[in-house]
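Example record

Each entry pairs one chain with its bound ligand, zinc ion.
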Amino acid sequence: MFKVPPVSARRLQELLRAMPKAELHIHIEGSLEPELIVALAQRNDLPLPYASVESLRQAYAFTNLQSFLDIYYAGASVLLHEQDFYDMARAYLARAAMDNVAHAEIFFDPQTHTARGVAIETVISGLHRACEDARSELGISSTLILCFLRHLSEASAFETLEQAQPLLGKIVGVGLDSSELGHPPEKFARVFARCRELGLHLVAHAGEEGPPAYIWSALDVLKVERIDHGVQAVHDAALMQRLAQDRIPLTVCPLSNQKLCVFPDLKNHNLRQLLDAGLCATVNSDDPAYFGGYINENFTQVFAATNMTARHAYQLAFNSFEASFASNADKRVWEHRLKETFERFVEHD
Ligand code: HPA
Ligand code: ZN
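Structure tokens for the complex follow.
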């Protein structure tokens, strides 16, 4: 690993913004800004439950995951046509490119849309076209991960997989999201086994609000390659050892954890503890339109609150490439650019 010299606090904040990074935990429906929700509601002639962009933004005060999900699903209901999904993903990718995201692996929730009569092909085609255009026009690489909603049944997940079958060439893997407590990973053991047979990559949300036991079963029953969130792992020493030993990536989302009251304050966040214990932790935005910031805001705020160093910054960016499902050739190119960025900053400090 490249030996990272210390840099001043001011330069560190600049470095966090400038360094190339991968974003591996972003729900595309959670990138819908209030302005776009209002614009899409008008374009699609749909009534809006809020009078203005401002009153919509004011509703974004959450006490836990469920209080957020209720508003998040309501926001997503303005998405009807292929162009709506395209516009949403294109807006996110343009914003991510500004934060020097070289590669994004984007979650989407098809059941939220198919339940309203939107065809899964409409969803995937719009998102995929945005990813392709962003690659050629913005130079950002991106892929899609289909998430099953864990508050719905196993049968509904199987039905979704069936609908997605002709479109599997447009996605890189599957995930598991929505209400965690009361919906352990085991509920989807057979669905994930089938996805594994189909050659899809596997990830799951676990240990956001739920106990370490959910992280164990995501690993051992679902056989996932990454854990989304996973911050509750610190309460189980044997699990911490397993995650460190096997270099299982955790896609951590600091501002999400703060806004959903997983930690009382950002200064109590355990990201530094996870890194210092040798885990492959990464920083991500989760639902940036709802949680007060895109990926660079997550980096700069959590670093300011927890006094992490340039070495931590390098490790987090390096981890994000290591943890991605991109090709080894792409990873080497991004890691080289990362090293160059650090060398440039240190020279001029
Ligand atoms: N957790 C679970 N489900 C979600 C989240 C999250 O943070 N964001 C969007 N769906
Ligand atoms: Zn999430």
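The pocket of zinc ion (ligand 2) is lined by residues 25, 27, 177, 205, 228, 286 (CB under 6 Å).
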